[in-house]
Predict the 3D structure of the following.
Amino acid sequence: MRSTDAASEIPLHDPLFKLIRDLHIKDVGKQIGETLVMLRDERVRLKENPPSDSLAESKVFVRRLLDMQGSEKHADTHTLIAEHLMSFIRDDLRYSTFPKLAIDIVQGEYGDRVIPQLENLILEAYNPLIVLRFISLQCMVTGGFKNATISTYERLFIQSYGGYYMSLWIKLQVTGLLWERNGKIKCEYAPFDFQTACHRMSCFVDEEHSAYGTTAYPYNGYVPLIVRYIETGIRNNWRDWTTIQSDDHSTMSHGTYSIIFIIGGVTQAELACLRKIRFSNKLLVVSSAIITGNKLINSIQ
């Protein structure tokens, strides 16, 4: 958390955090509210039913009281965090539109034309890292930009941010996150055909299949490709995957672990999706980093 003076870290390993960590943001407030009601009822019960003179009953009462006080403290912490987030969104109303913008881009709503909302963000000199995240996402989804689109974005970007961030623009081109179809700049890696992969893996599902408990729930109807690939591996018993499992142990009992290594990093939302997968045994996900969009762009910068 960050105040006007300094940043502070709060450990989030309490039972309430485990309840809300994988929730879609629209359901977090509801869960915290239900927890507060439960704690209020527990306090009333303790007040109406004090312990007798029995030592055993007194110990149980004290333990329940301490547990309730600890839960109240955790609820206060998460309420405070939620208030900070809502305050941030109220101060920057544009930020609340970004999740829908991202989903619209991934679904290909804009094609490879200049997106008016991104154009306005650039003209307002909004956070360049966020702007570049959306432009790179659109470029990946469309399989590269036509010359007119990338030229317009580049011209607007230079006008608003100057030469300092232009070096980051070029680095994104070199790394294959921003490119012109049939352009002169050659990427170090071949561009990824996102649309084909997304369609083949059925990454978008209807409302019926995005309910709580499904892998599509955390993103409210979208399943990340990494999650779909892992689901496929489970269904075909990891056929064609590089594993360290010998042929003599093709069946996995509930008491064993599957360890999945994700190279390059994984997001908290992707982890939330992975925790919704039904594994035949226990799952351990190992990755080189917990990443966000800003961390990815900053690592290139």
User: Anything to note?
Assistant: Residues 55-91 form the longest helix (37 residues). The CA atoms of residues 121 and 131 lie 7 Å apart. The two ends are 25 Å apart (CA to CA).
